[in-house]
Amino acid sequence: MSLDKQAAAFTKSVQAQANFSGPRRVAAPTTSTTPAAASTPTTAPKRKRIVDRTKPVAPPIVYSQPTDTSLGTQHMMTQVHHAIQHLKQREVPQTPEQIASYLSIQMTPTLLQVLKQNERLTWNPAQGTLEYKPIHNIRSAQALLAHLQQQTTAQGLSVKELKDGWAGAVETIADLEESGDILVTRTKKDNQPRMVWINDKTLDIIVEDEFKAIWHKIVIPPPGDLPGELEKAGLKPTSVDPATIKKEVKGGAQKGRKRAQNRRVKVSNVHMNHILKDSKDLKR
């Protein structure tokens, strides 16, 4: 038997053992065993969602409602500010309807409650009105004089505080100052009233003309000669240090320093005289 015949016989036997001569079969997909999965092999299988029950679940967001940005509160406080300024300028009580009409706003129950509780406003439940409460309840010349007369100290009253809630404070102060009812201090820059006091006219003293003439006859020396004139009169000027004033020495010019006299010193170490004497000799 030749070599070619042996190779052909070997190939035939191998094909017979592997059954290569039968029809070719296609293997089914291993991703799913159901018929539906086999018919649609391109569709990915759905995974089951696992929810962790230990974590708190956030409430769902409702997008139909706007987020609270506190704009409503800011708008209300702006309305309160304008209402207070309006009552401060009017200086008379106003009803909530009058305030709302002037500011062109709607007086809601919440806004009215905030105005009632404001410390700068006074609510009158009998009349149903709101009024601005100034620092001092003074809005007339009579009220100002009465307040100054009741003061127990000489501290005075600030004009800045009087102007709070009283638009005519400056004009009234000028009239009372001209009539002599009050005393006023003013600023140097623009001559505006700063502090006011009551002018107690019972302390006014009538000075006779004769005494005024004597007073004006007294000649006051220049400021540079005033300390010397006071010294001549035996007085000590308050603007000069008394230690710097030279006093005249009786009996002539001031003597020089006396020479210091030698004082005798009692020797207590007599028993060491020989030692001290030897040490002095050595130094020499």
From TrEMBL:
Q: Where in the cell is it found?
A: Nucleus
Q: InterPro entries recorded for this chain? A: TFA2_E-tether, TFA2_Winged_2, TFIIE-bsu, TFIIE_bsu_DNA-bd
Residue spans of biased composition, Low complexity class? 27-44
Q: How does it assemble?
A: Tetramer of two alpha and two beta chains.
- The name on file for this protein is Transcription initiation factor IIE subunit beta
Protein family according to the UniProt entry: Belongs to the TFIIE beta subunit family.
Q: From which organism does this entry originate?
A: Morchella conica CCBAS932
- Region entry Disordered, spans: 16-47
